[in-house]
Structures are given as C-alpha cells and as structure tokens.
Amino acid sequence: MSTTIFESRYAIGPNEAKTLDTQGLRKNFLIEKIFTADKIHFVYSHYDRYMAGGAMPVSGPIKLETIEPLLKEPFFLSRRELGIINVGGAGLVDVDGTSYEIGHKEALYIGKGAQEVYFSSNDKNNPAKFYLNSTPAHHSYPTKRVTKDEANKIELGALETANHRTINQMLLNKVIDTCQLQMGMTELKPGSVWNTMPAHTHDRRMEVYFYFEVPEGQSVSHFMGPTDETRHIWMQNEQAVISPPWSIHAGAGTSNYTFIWGMAGENLDYDDMDKSPITELR
C-alpha cells in the first residue's frame, strides 16, 4: 500500500485570482495538511513544477516513492532535487544506504539521481517532521546536511517596527550547490509579528511559505496578490501557502512564529526582488 498522498494544482494568473472568494483562494493556494503519521504528503504546483509537503514517520521508516501519474519516472529523484528541514524530533534520512542524522531545525539536500530514500524517527513519541520541497533538476549535486550553525545568518528589522527576525539561509547557493531549489528558515523574535517587509515580488521565480511554531490559539494572516490589490489568507500552525511569481508573500501573526521559505525559478540570486514601498501597498 502506498504511503504517499498527493494532489496537483494548476497555475492561475492574477486576473483569474481576482475572481476568487475566500474559499477559492484557500483551495488554490493554501496547503492545509502537511503531516500525517506514517504518510508523505505532497502538493504538486504547476508554478515552476514545485512540490511541497511533509513526511512524518512514527511506527517505522517510510519510503520516498515515485508518483507515477505526476512524474512518470522510475524513482522520485530521477530528474528532481529535494530539500528537507526537520521541524519535529530527531530522525534519520537514509539516502542510497548512507544515513544522515537530522535534528530539530536541521536541513538536508539530496541531489538528482538518488534512488532509495527512507525517513525514520529516533523516538516515535517525539517523531520527526520532515518538511519537504522539491524542484526539477538538470545536474546531480552531492547530498549534504546543513545545521543552523552552518547557515548564512542575516539579522533584519527591529522590535520598534515589529519585525525583528533572523534569516537562516540553509539550502542556498552561498552555503551549498543546488540546481534551482533554495530554502531557509526565518525566526521572529518575541514581540515581532511581521515577516518580509517591505513586501516584494519576483516574476522570475515562485515561493512557498510554511508556518510553524505558531502558539496554540494564535494564527498568521498571510498576504498575497499584486502590490496594488492584496488579499489575505488566515493560516494555522504547520500549514503552507503557495506564492505565485506575480504575488507578494508577507504575513503578520497574532504572536511571533517561525517560517520556512522555499523558492525556485529563473536564477539563484536571493536579492533579486522587485520591492514595493510599504506606503504604496493597496
């Protein structure tokens, strides 16, 4: 029996998105369920053929299987690369017979061509939660583990503007070699709630945000849409949202939180952004 649950979502443009009500926005862009015990969840987005999901092994190892209707390949990473950040308890990722210990908030990159990938938890009572992002790849780069200490860290914002945060660039070309996938983790300080200000777009690539460490009873309002016609989606802990190339991607929580950003597209220039002044957002 397959352990993989998946769905496919087609890309829509800004004009079509204007016609969507709240339910329509959530159906097209929100990924409500990332983790289920002993399952792998994936959403396949037709924006840059990006895949986002999660693996939560509890009772035993679970295998990264190919998804025949979507990939038409003998194994998942035949023509793809995979980024992993663990947001749960410690676990193992076995890649073609080599095991990598991945602790809480540690990352692993797996390059194109890896055939046998298994996920397992060290303690079923505190299972690993492997957040997964995958993109098409044209070259095979080595599998590599990246800890928070090895990340390229950037301090931004201030408590006075409610956006004091640390950006941990983990699976980024400044740290490791990838084809197009880039991932990192932004941690907001207590008292800060805003992320990604000033807001921006980058028509050359898309992005996915995964929000976690949202305290019980709190939420995050994620903002999307063109800079002159923004919309919002209310999100709960351990949910993700797809950001099209034409959309801003920013949010404000009712408490501080952490989020993982992943992106892919035309280039690997992290600072390639078309910024919008805060006072010009509509």
TrEMBL record:
<feature type="binding site">
    <location>
        <position position="207"/>
    </location>
    <ligand>
        <name>Zn(2+)</name>
    </ligand>
</feature>
<dbReference type="GO" id="GO:0042840">
    <property type="term" value="P:D-glucuronate catabolic process"/>
</dbReference>
<dbReference type="GO" id="GO:0008697">
    <property type="term" value="F:4-deoxy-L-threo-5-hexosulose-uronate ketol-isomerase activity"/>
</dbReference>
<feature type="binding site">
    <location>
        <position position="249"/>
    </location>
    <ligand>
        <name>Zn(2+)</name>
    </ligand>
</feature>
<comment type="similarity">
    <text>Belongs to the KduI family.</text>
</comment>
<keyword id="KW-0413">Isomerase</keyword>
<keyword id="KW-0862">Zinc</keyword>
<comment type="function">
    <text>Catalyzes the isomerization of 5-dehydro-4-deoxy-D-glucuronate to 3-deoxy-D-glycero-2,5-hexodiulosonate.</text>
</comment>
<dbReference type="Pfam" id="PF04962">
    <property type="entry name" value="KduI"/>
</dbReference>
<comment type="pathway">
    <text>Glycan metabolism; pectin degradation; 2-dehydro-3-deoxy-D-gluconate from pectin: step 4/5.</text>
</comment>
<feature type="binding site">
    <location>
        <position position="202"/>
    </location>
    <ligand>
        <name>Zn(2+)</name>
    </ligand>
</feature>
<dbReference type="InterPro" id="IPR011051">
    <property type="entry name" value="RmlC_Cupin_sf"/>
</dbReference>
<dbReference type="InterPro" id="IPR021120">
    <property type="entry name" value="KduI/IolB_isomerase"/>
</dbReference>
<dbReference type="GO" id="GO:0045490">
    <property type="term" value="P:pectin catabolic process"/>
</dbReference>
<feature type="binding site">
    <location>
        <position position="200"/>
    </location>
    <ligand>
        <name>Zn(2+)</name>
    </ligand>
</feature>
<dbReference type="GO" id="GO:0019698">
    <property type="term" value="P:D-galacturonate catabolic process"/>
</dbReference>
<keyword id="KW-0479">Metal-binding</keyword>
<dbReference type="InterPro" id="IPR007045">
    <property type="entry name" value="KduI"/>
</dbReference>
<protein>
    <recommendedName>
        <fullName>4-deoxy-L-threo-5-hexosulose-uronate ketol-isomerase</fullName>
        <ecNumber>5.3.1.17</ecNumber>
    </recommendedName>
</protein>
<dbReference type="InterPro" id="IPR027449">
    <property type="entry name" value="KduI_N"/>
</dbReference>
<dbReference type="GO" id="GO:0008270">
    <property type="term" value="F:zinc ion binding"/>
</dbReference>
<dbReference type="InterPro" id="IPR014710">
    <property type="entry name" value="RmlC-like_jellyroll"/>
</dbReference>
